[in-house]
Structures
1.
Amino acid sequence: MLEGVTVCGGVAIGKVKLRGYELDRSRNRRLAASQAEPEVERFLAAVSRSKAQVERLKASVEEDLGKEEVKILGVHLAYLQDPTFLADVEERIRRHLLPLEDALAAVVRDFDRIFELVENEKLKECALDLRDVALRVLRNLEPVEEGEGDDEADEDPYILVSRKLSITDMQHLDRSKVLGIVAESGGPNSHAAILARSMGIPAITGVQGLRDRLKDGDFVILDAGTGVLYLDPEERLRREYEVRVLEAREAVSFEDEGPDELGDGTPISLMGSCGNLGDVGQAMDAGLEGVGLYRTELLFFVDRTLPGEDMLLHHYKEVRSRAGGLPVTFRLLDLSGDMVLPGYPRRNEPNPALGLKGIRLLLRESTLFRMQLRALLRLASEEPIEIAVPFVTTVQELQRVRTAVREEREILRKSGIDCAGETRIGVVVEVPATAFSIEALLHEADFVIVALDDLQQYLLAADRDNLHVSEYYRTFHPALFRLLDRLHRETRRFGKECRLFGEGAADPLRLPFFLGVGFRSFSVSPVRSPRIRKALRKWTAPAAESLSREVLAAPSSLEVQRLLLRAER
């Protein structure tokens, strides 16, 4: 059993296919001087084939994934035309007389060494993109016949095992072929991770020593929800997970299951948590009541230049259009100090998670902040708009947002731009200090969104993506349950909506507690909606309230877990 960090939850069962290790092999030979130019020509021909391949791939996935994810492939096209990259490879062939394969590997190794030394995840992503491009060129060294290539049409489905989480290793992103992805390295917020989540491919990263432990054709079970890979599993475990896979396939069919309600008819609002147009379409297919939180960051990272106000407005209109008139809550840019935007200087913060993050950064970068506000206000000309403010820690921050909204609305009005529609501003609660002082914020906020996963990690001082502190990220810590109870009681006292958001919000084990303390609005990943609907119907409001009282009185994590497990049976 090997452990990793979850990129996209889910279960996959099947045989392994190793990819992405080609750059690790050295041929340890030198070319004759007369062979250098033919080798350069072979390189340029492979680059040409790679560019054509990426263009075809962009065209084939644009409809399914949306324009933002497709722009990720534009980054690869840019590398394939980057004169520095091309010249570097050619120099190693001509000057050092390296075979093309070794020249590509040397360029990638140098790039890796440089960016492994920095803390910034966005810069590390540059190294991963270049590795992707080099792999694609390697696999296109020889021309293929028309109709052949990497479409894998005749290949059995497999679980991709790779050195790094990589777009190239995902091939044509064929969900029917790639059952799951396991990588030794590559960030959970990398381009490949974004695409994996968009298509719901179970994936984990950070699993060391894969090449030494696995070979092509080995049978494995990937439980990406818990971040575990089972090697050569016994028959009993295999049968157990096969049942889970069948249940998951039935669940994603999004069949009409009637209204969202408890077993006693108590109505529940289920909305989608989305980060791209594909997610919004999936939320609509799932019959959700709208988009409870739309993450607006992706558009700022899919190109080498920042999007302008008009581009933002166009994208937000498309989001609303795909939502079919149902409500959408747009979260303002939630950027942390280790994210570098195109055209902005890199900041060196000792602890980015506790630095210039969310609204703190936006208030510092007022040009960026106000550009996004103007795009959202222009969207409000058509119908009311909801704006969620991330990483709020003081009431003054929310007041400054309201002031900026008033000022930008007046500027737009004087320019003759209609933006008179209602604008509701809410607070995203993810910091314990915010949760404990929610009364003051409720005088300014129109609604509250509780970012459960972030609140939990900050409350318990344990990064949820760090395997080394996973034992401290206790799902059942009594402090979290008591804080959630207090949060909902205060928002209810003020008559404000309190929506629970995050992966944890769809946890069927903790769901009855959430219901028992009064939560009736949830923003969840669309693929999790069938599971949460099934769990809702098992409970009545009085039964959930009774359980929540027991949980709140429990003295330890172990006792909380015991109560919830007993209730699930």
2.
Amino acid sequence: MRKSIKIIISALIFSFLIAVLFVINRDLYHFTYETQIQRLFNSELAEKQDYIVNGPVTLKPGKYFLSLKLTVEGNGNGLFLIDGDDQEFFYEDLPSGTKDPSIPFEIKTSAKQVRIGIRYDGGESVVNLEWITITSDHVLYRESIAKHLTVSLLIILLASCLALRLLWPEVIWKVFPFFSIPENELSFWFLILLTAAACWPILDGKLYIHGDDMFFHATRIRGLADSLRAGYFPVRDQLYWLHNYGYGVSFFYPDVFLYFPAILVLLGFNLLTSYNIFLVICSFFSVFSIWFVCERITKNRLAALTSAVFMAFSAYRLITVYYRAAIGEVQATIFYPVIFYGLYEIFHNHEEKWGFFAFGFLGLLCCHMISLAIGIIVTALLLLLHIKKILSDRRIAVALIKSVLLVIGLGSFFWIPMLEQSITNPQLNINQVLSGTVLFNATNYAIPVQNLFLRFKTWSMMLQSESVYPGWSFLLIVLFGVLLGRKRGKMVKSADFMLVFSLPFLWMCTRAFPWRWSIFRPLVTRIQFAYRFLLPVSVLFFLAGGIYFSALTKKYKKKTAAVPAFVVLMIFCFFTTAYPILNESYLHRSVEKRMFVMQDNRVSGGEYMPKGLDNDYPDKNADTVRLVETDIPLSIPFHKRQKLGFTFSYELPKGSGEVHFSVPLIHYTGFQAVLTADDGTVLYPKIKADDRGLVSLSNEGFDSGTVSVFYQKTICQWIGEGITLLTFIAIVIWKRRLFTSEDGKTCFSL
């Protein structure tokens, strides 16, 4: 390329970059806080008094506008702001007839944590408050700086990559050898387009898709972000949940990959924006994973791209993303193909590639325990079918053992603390799930057999199993296999094995399988829904489908027809399987982001709560300290909640003796306490759970004093993290080449 052309292209890219940076940074000084309230005050619903209507909002010094969607009938009502010390910051009358007022105010000295309140006059007055918005164009927040800086750096990086690719491609190829092959680059961009096609309902920045478990997982991200901000890492007992009573979801539900959207939240990104970005990234890696695996197995790009199309437009994957919002399974879709690829290589004389097998299972361990259990079941059956080869070939057995040890070692940071909490906290609901003693859900565990032949069915949250279906892609793949006839090559026979091997698990997804038999009930109660086996089944079907389609194009010896046939296949999969779900999600399940209201008591099934604690207890009792099983009067002159801790002073009648406090924190192993009596005595009371599952401790016989309860790592947590660290260090020292290509070059090495 001539120098003059390079200069022109560089100037164009630079000019475009400056323009984009200017546009995205125009709102650097803009601040918006918006929340839906939906509160009606009238004589039937409210008494004459002050009502706080929102949570605390931190405002830096500057000029603001408080806008409300509000209507008022009757006089004597008003609007006020209070600061973090409950002192009234300002008051504004709301005379009768007021509608949607906009009130300017200013924070002059230092940042304030404000809350908004309505002063209701009672009587015949009616105040209807729907929305609150606080805006400013003259303040600069750390979160805004972090967000704009992150986005700007990303855009600069993309512009730099574009410039290098156009002007000095050899630099890109040296850093990323993968792209030095033109077909790889084309495949990469094709996978990007597939991801975009499968994610278009969430690419609108103003909307989110209301999935069944979306609020639960969004709260997990928010809890991780708040906990990281407070200095906890790794996060075990999450802040934010249940008015900061703490929720030990991270003990039992792996959230390694959720740290990414949580960090985005810390950088100033909207919670739902972070959630949607994470969904898009997971979708891309799900498509990339099966493309990578199929390409490695078949050495055929058409087969790999076909498998990627099947995965991108998979009915069950899209149901999982949009309807169920099952983020754990969304992540698991990335790792099932890697597990099968590792097994394929191990059993085809490439035992040195056992790292793929281990990496797949480690990924499941880091994202979803139920998917891990399903992966173990599927793998166990496959190994059982190859038991003779395993016993006769020492290399295979060694590869499998090394994989298991690696997963156990690297995953110790999670499974050791999980076992500790399960053993030491028998009152947690999760123990009933782990023991398989929960009630058998006879109406919502598996899909009707006829669902295997459905094109589309409207989703029902209450009857999920009635709405799950694999889509016509499955039927098309079976048809491809039939059309190949009797003459079948080695690779097609491998596809046949994948298909036949997956059929029993497809059977297990349906009600035709005898799940009602007592021998199978412990399994289905632990995995909750038998149709979850559709994920590994889908992966095997799609790998087989890619192989079949490639073989069909070769069989009929019409290479020129391969591309048109591929396009027809892609259109068929999109419009028969994906489009109905995507369109229905966008039209009927999409909600404006401004309508999103976080609720910290939405704990889904409450699996990680103690049995005796109701979801609404924190809301009703807030920071109340109680005495356990006694009516002795208790005075709490001072209390303060800080991070995963609670400090309070107390006074009891003289001679009360030993009593036990119930502290407003959910009990998980790891809480410690310090009691300082008024005479200066310092004691360390033992922590236990009360009948509700809250933190409980003794006053050690002192009638007055100060108690501080706080959370710290247990010995088991330190041991688990230490084993993980030592395992990682050992891998680095030994320089095991876990991922090796056939030419001896490593694509990944540790």
3.
Amino acid sequence: MMKISIKILLLYLIISVFSIQAEEVSSNLDKIIPRHEITNQDCMECHGVEGFAVPIGEHGETLKQKLYVNPDDFDDSVHAQITCLECHQDIKQLPHSKEKLKTVDCITCHQNLVRKETTFQGKKIVNITVLATPNAVQAKEFTIDYTNSIHAQTQKNKPNQYNAECKDCHGTHNIFPSTQSRSLAHRLASPEVCGSCHEKALNEYTNSVHGATLKTPWKGDSAVCSDCHSAHKISKAEGLVAHRIITENCGNCHQEALNSYMNSYHGQLAWLGGEKVAKCSDCHYSHNTRKVDDPNDKVHKNHLLTTCRECHKEATASFVQFHPHGNTHDYEKYPELWWVAKIMVGMVIVVLIFFYIHSMLWFYRSWRERQQGYIHHSEHPKPTSTKHYRRFSWGWRLNHWLLVISVMTLVFTGMTAMYADSVWAGYIVQLFGSPEQSAIVHRFAAIGFIIAVVGHVIALFYKLIFNRNQKFAWFGPDSLLPRWKDASDMVAQFRWFFGKGTKPRFDRWTYWEKFDYWAVYWGALVIGLSGLILWFSEFFGQFLPGWVFNIATVAHGIEAFLAVATLFVVHFFNNHFRPGKFPLDTVMFTGSWSLEEFKEERPEEYERLVKTNTLSQYLVKPPSKMVNIISYILGFSFISFGLFLLVLVVIGFFQKGLI
């Protein structure tokens, strides 16, 4: 009997409380308040009553929509200084029980945030219109990011509902500064907030090394959802934007790993949008991230071969010796990479210093001679000679054109990968359609380069073996092999640079032309061999250790950079930009020089041909006007494109460096 009395008493108390609340609300509804008189306090007379709710259906027995607003929470929120009607703009009066109110438009409000600066009594005052928040400008930027995100897109089965609205992540009336632990936008709250929609990801994250560390904060900081995915720049998980954002954000904690990844073929191609290349989540679990020494981790030694075979079907035990995060700065871990990089960078420095100084001294000496009254052949009246000296045959010219086109295409596509994170790389990839298409073009250009080099060697050996009527002097004037005269010419050239002697008399081939010639073979050996190893990685991986691919990547990139820095600077100057040649030497297109130019450029060869009565064998008609026009168009086009490539590489170099 006693228990029944207590229950009746409790029921009476509950009914009394609700009756009092009903009376309070009822009394508030008796008076109609027009919009221009409504204050926050007027709203709180109903919404500030704890338990205040309205039925969703037609009568009170249906589910109810909670409309209670905690006054203390609202007063502490970032919106405390604005009125209710600034958000609920369609309320015309109080009460508004029969009005169908629209959803609050957070986006329009935040996008219209304006930062205004005014001066009052000599002091600068900053006013933020629409919303009084100290981070209004940042809030505006976040809103713009949100509108471009996957969260702002509507659901497929619910076209009128967004994937995630502002209130889902920030709350409604309890929006506190994100620095406060009670805020839904607080960094450590993101797993729970994000997990309300992404339950599977939350479960995986909870069991990961990141989630485990979050449970033990005394061990140090750990990554949460917003650290990897950002807060507002959320895109489709499989998209390029998402991959780039997550990759960059991983680098916030794992900077060394990010740098080494971006220097690898994996990172370069993935950054450009490659679909069939390893990304972070392909080798490491995305949400269920584990330590590398965890037996269940994908890159643990027990599972590494299986992980590699997800992409490289024919991978062997030696193949997995590849260093996915190998770098050239850690001698203890990667000594072979360290040595290769140091030797090749040293070679780059020596070559560029020597030939850049060579070009600058040449320009200075030519300028001094011009000041002293020396007139070059190009400044003389046009020659009246009706004969030209044939310097290059059709075979030479065709080979050179193939070499030029293939090398420039290789640079255009290859440097896009080497400097994948440069501002210009993405535009070039879009030009080709995809990084895979760019890679195909790169390989076709490589085939053209190999044909040009190997074809030239075959032609030379054919001529030497089958053309026995003429004896060939291996170290004679017609040979491109280095000889003592080249050394003496170079010494004399430097003496002339400094005004200590006369300009040397050159024969058919100069010492800088021989350097250019043999540099092609050196480049073909280093770039060609390393390129083939990277191209056919699964084939070479069956009998070569995996670290060879790391070395091939380093050698391929450094040698390509050296080629760009010499071809489009030193070679262009020696053959086109130096006084007397500027702005263009068309001999590689027309195949011939005027006799006046021939006498000045190659006096030793000219006198030798005259002395042996063989000059007439090399005399040809001057090129026609049309041939000259075409030669200039092609020449300027190639040079302009080469300089354009040089600018791109210089931008990439200053942004990223060489290794």
